[in-house]
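Protocol step 4 of 6: structure prediction from sequence.
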Amino acid sequence: MEPLYDNPTFFDKYSQMYRSQHGLAGAGEWPSLQPLLPDFTGKRVLDLGCGYGWHCSYAAQQGAAYVLGIDNSQRMLEVAKAKNNAPEIQYRRASIDQLSLPEESFDVVFSSLAIHYLPDYPGLVEQVKSWLVPGGDFVFSVEHPIFTAQGPQDWVYGPKGEILHFPVDNYFYEGEREAVFLGEKMVKYHRTLTTYLDTLLQKGFSLKRVVEPQPPQSMMNLPGMQDEMRRPMMLLVAAEKR
């Protein structure tokens, strides 16, 4: 089955997003995410779901010795190679949950807004642990459990189209959710905050930071951004392999 991000219509819509056009500077969570990242100097870095390769490029610019960007979308990788290429970066088309890599071959594993597309989170954590050296860093962002719980990921509106509130329902029933993004239906996986954090602790990681990012003041003038203060959309986690 063709990845949704390889669908020409969907990909064209995605390419018009503010964050797609402005890179890390256009990502509302970046001011909160950047401080969670480790020192990349001389490190081997794995980016799971690298998309346009913005984070791969950042790691290379910060002195990473080697960066491997993984994505299952050919269109994404083509843009990444055009926009964010450097001698230290290698891109590979693969599904994250089918990825096979040597044990202890990376110092840092990073993932931005990709893990909520995967059905087996505990299995992924096991894999990441095997890929990391002892003391290695695992930093990732996902859609917040409050955002994924109910499913459609849209506000509840009043009779005049005004936003009333954001629905949270079936929180403790983990699993598939059908969401709509850029007008297209897609499957995401809802997990509780306990699952995201306690799984890391049970699988041999130590938590370093947990952040629910707020939109930066510099973006408050963008359409809809002020409403992002009404509920969390993302969860940022930094962990270390014990």
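Step 5 (inspection) to follow. Residues 121-131 form the longest helix (11 residues).
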